[in-house]
Amino acid sequence: MAPLTIPLNDGKQIPWLGFGTGTALYSKDAEAAIRVAIANGIVHLDGAQMYQNEDSLGNGIASSGKPRSELFVTTKLGKLPEGKTVRDTLVESLKKLKLDYVDLFLIHMPIHHEGKLKAVWKEFEELQKEGLAKSIGVSNFRIKDFEELLDGANVVPAVNQIEYHPYVYKATAPLLEFQKKHNIVATSYGGLTPIVRQKGGPVDPVLASITQRLTKDVGKNVTEGQVLGLWLRSQGIPEITTSSKEERVKEYVATQTLPDLTPEEVNAITEAGSKVHHRAFCKWLDD
Ligand SMILES: NC(=O)c1ccc[n+]([C@@H]2O[C@H](COP(=O)([O-])OP(=O)(O)OC[C@H]3O[C@@H](n4cnc5c(N)ncnc54)[C@H](OP(=O)(O)O)[C@@H]3O)[C@@H](O)[C@H]2O)c1
Questions:
Q1: What residues are annotated to the active site?
Q2: Neighbour-count burial of 212, counting CB atoms closer than 10 A to its CB (0-12 exposed, 13-18 middle, 19+ buried)
Q3: In the prediction, which pLDDT does 3 show?
Q4: What is each CA distance from 80 to 63, 117, 171, in whole angstroms?
Q5: What are the extents of the domains in the chain?
Q6: Exposed site from 25, 32, 59, 199, fewest CB < 10 Å?
Q7: Interval between CA 193 and ligand 1 midpoint (Å)
Q8: Nearest-CA residue for atom 31 of ligand 1
Q9: 5-192+235-245 has which CATH code?
Q10: At residue 196, does pLDDT exceed 80?
Q11: pLDDT at 264 over 90
Q12: pLDDT digits (tens, 9 = 90+) for 125-180
């Protein structure tokens, strides 16, 4: 089955389901997990310089046997070390990843480049021209960060990778509106927060009833995690997740072929999520 993809503003496509090497795999060897992900059909792999495991991500890619052209690999710029250019860091990343290019290169955190976003972005634009990064984008950006970066930019970021799930829906709505105007795709990390990090909230009963309805209709076990994935899919938002368990990886992959939630179900999740605000990562985004 061809992976489900979402179009980007630069003419490229991003696979809807991504497997990350941060959070649970942060600074750990990711090779085995990456091999399992690729063997089960995941082609979008999300790394970062800050995760300190790009070399093992590269090992997982190399040993998977999957042609490079069928994979979509992301890495992210961390804090810029004294005396190094953005290009220096990407060349180092590519060496660790054992790749000639990444499909997506992101600025990981705007707060790492205070007052320098425009200059950093100019370097990103050059790296895209050079072909070392096919698409360029950002992560954890607020509207004010975009306003700073876009002033004088030649390329509009293709992606903003953000924490996104029902408990940050309300807080994120103005940002998503802004991104829509500029044709910047949001991708979600932390999407499983309502069932993994913030259980016991108002979304729980809604997920339970939708899970029951879908399990009955589909005739096989559908999980609450999959329903959260379908909620993201209904908004055209790629899900970047991770797992240490092959069974769960299979579950994530199977989400792609589940039927859509009804508009009423999407609204019920959104409304329940809007009753509570809970951000699990980057709390400074709420300041
Ligand atoms: N740009 C950024 O600043 C940023 C920040 C955070 C994350 N990310 C990226 O996004 C990726 C995914 O982030 P995330 O870990 O927050 O994603 P997530 O999809 O919210 O959570 C995935 C985790 O949930 C666990 N899980 C899944 N279903 C579960 C269930 N039913 N019950 C209990 N646990 C369950 C998995 O553990 P098991 O091993 O048990 O399956 C896995 O560790 C990261 O690896 C990273 O690449 C980026």
A1: 51
A2: exposed
A3: 83
A4: 30, 12, 29
A5: 5-192+235-245
A6: 199
A7: 8
A8: 225
A9: 3.20.20.100
A10: yes
A11: yes
A12: 999 999 999 999 999 999 999 999 999 999 999 999 999 999 999 999 999 999 99
